[in-house]
Amino acid sequence: MRITQARVIVTCPGRNFVTLKIVTDEGVTGVGDATLNGRELAVAAYLTEHVVPALIGRDPARIEDTWQYLYKGAYWRRGPVTMSAIAAVDTALWDIKGKVAGLPVYQLLGGRSREGVTVYGHANAPDTESVLSEISAYVDRGYRAVRVQTGIPGLESTYGVSGGTAFYEPADAAVPTENVWSTAHYLEHVPSVFARVREEFGPTLKLLHDVHHRLTPIEAARLGRSLEPYALTWIEDPVPAELPEGFRLIRQHTTTPIAVGEVFNTIWDCQQLITEQLIDYIRTTVVHAGGITHLRRIFDLAALYHVRSGSHGATDLSPVCMAAALHVDLAIPNFGLQEYMRHTDETDGVFPHSYHFADGYLHPGEEPGLGVDIDEELAGRYPYRPASLPVNRLRDGTMHSW
Ligand code: CS2
Ligand code: MG
């Protein structure tokens, strides 16, 4: 079998997605997600100009060799653009391998290690009282874990709180929207949210919270300690993750578990955090961390250090990524949680898939391969629309992490 074509498909069914479709001379095709929120065309160009020409004529069965070729052969290694492009190729080749074998990909990864993939949804609302009904809606749908984000009194907007729609999409303008942030207002408010949520829902519902890179280590230590009475499953991205040593300071002060990794692209990005046990969950995902092949390496390293998976699964990761993630989630021994921000009907129409939600679990389905595809005719009806993630400033205008 040989690769004869690889199409880079950019579509915007409500938000932008980049998909790679690899075609072989025996008619078997595979798909991979290459979406990088706000930088979609950079990955599309990298694929079109620097990857696709080298794929034509290759044996699609050689997944590892192709990964090594694209990684070591690039010279300029790592980074979100390069690794998202490699991820798309890798994911599509696993899709093809499953179809050729007549097996769902999770069977190629060692088979089922659990009955289903426990997912968490996003409850978000402008204030504490209104977030309670959002949480109830997830509990009523059978979710066992819920991420909780609310507005911050005194701030016009904050991360994770949508304008009243169920689908939170932060890339809301071609030129970045400017948000304003106050750590003092945030640290003052968040503990009261979880005190109220625990009062309403009791001690066992898994609760998560995304700090979204906005604190210093000592501020994160204060937040973690203030949330200890509410036993969160994790606080996520407490600080910008460029300084692994900073997490030692957080660990010295609090037992609140930490989840990090959605912005990481390789095992080297998270190696120190894992081997020093500075985190409890690693959130790397198929589309941004080099595909199924590399993600398994990260999770295998994590398993040696009691670190569990908690893969990113926002709406800006396409159903192709979600499908691939579920096959990995089902098979690995150290699965923790899978984020699942449901896509819109428009998006689901472009990406028909076999994964489905039942009794609090997502199931990838039993179709050979990944169980997902792209309807290229329908995708063609949704042209790309420039959209950037916001930027964040402090009240005095100082640039801050968004
Ligand atoms: C967030 C994301 O889902 C999460 O945990 O961090 O919504 C993130 O902000 C977006 O994926 C960025 O595109
Ligand atoms: Mg996050």
Q: How does this structure look, described?
A:
One of its GO terms (biological process) is amino acid catabolic process. By secondary structure, the chain is α/β, with parallel strands linked by helices. It folds into two domains: 3-107, Enolase-like, N-terminal domain (Enolase-like, domain 1), CATH 3.30.390.10; 110-367, Enolase-like C-terminal domain (TIM Barrel). It contains 13 helices and 16 strands. It has helices at residues 40-55, 63-72, 80-101, 105-108, 128-140, 183-201, 217-227, 246-253, 267-275, 291-304, 319-331, 345-350, 376-379, and strands spanning 3-11, 17-24, 29-33, 117-125, 145-150, 178-181, 206-210, 234-236, 258-260, 281-282, 308-309, 338-339, 356-358, 361-363, 391-394, 399-400. The strands form three sheets. Strands 4, 5, 7, 8, 9, 10, 11, 12, 13 and 14 form a ten-stranded mixed sheet that branches. Helix 7 runs parallel beside helix 8 (246-253) and helix 9 (267-275) runs parallel beside helix 10 (291-304). The longest helix is centred in the first third of the chain and has 22 residues, at 80-101. The protein starts with a strand and ends with a strand. It binds D-mannonic acid and magnesium ion. The site of D-mannonic acid has 10 residues, from loops.
